[in-house]
Amino acid sequence: MTTVRLPLFPLNTVLFPGLVLPLNVFEEGYRAMMRELLKTPEDEPRRFAVVAIRDGYEVAPSSPGLPDPTAVPERGPSAGFGADPLRTFHKVACVADAATIRERADGTFEVLATGTTRVRLLSVDASGPYLTAEAETLEEDPGDEAGALAEGVLRSFRQYQKRLAGARERTLATGADLPDEPGVVSYLVAAAMMLDTPTKQRLLQAPDTASRLRDELKLLRTETAIIRHLPSLPAADLTRGPTSQN
């Protein structure tokens, strides 16, 4: 088992390997993380782990609120995540490589990162200025019949795109060719579908590529059937990733 210690960036979203994640970093703990990452030489990866929040707040409370307006808000890197942050997060995360970290004049950061590999969290340390995690690297096992499943998923995904575009009364967002490598297909489709965070997390932590593709095939067929009966379905642009406000 290969273990690594990484800075931990909790979000209310799931990052997949190969997908791009823009971040607007303004909380002091995450700003400290970015300042530390900037110390890494430019020819080395500036890595941190992005983990989806199971129960907690992406942005820590910073002022008194309900039900007790006099309550003092929590401070520190684990604020909003309870006494044991590990229980607050999903166990499988994605390592992100920050290609761009740009500090603004006000001390906040604009970050552009790309998901690389999956990891399983083993422990979370809140003793420093930001959360860090001990994690084990998860290898991507193709599983059985991944190639054939990928072809089926791509066909269903194209139908899903067409139905979604029709429901929104607009043309398809992109005409670019889709990849055919099963692992890449599985992550691209998982990121592009309009799914809630628990479902996306389930896809991220699938035991192998084939299992993820089988799950996606069922989801695509179900979602396409739903869209067929909902001609005015609001949805976010499939080609635009979410920008976290941190």
From TrEMBL:
Pfam families: LON_substr_bdg. SMART domains: LON. InterPro entries: Lon_prtase_N, Lon_prtase_N_sf, PUA-like_sf. Residues 6-224 form the Lon N-terminal domain. This is Endopeptidase. It comes from Streptomyces griseoflavus Tu4000. The lineage of its organism: Bacteria, Bacillati, Actinomycetota, Actinomycetes, Kitasatosporales.
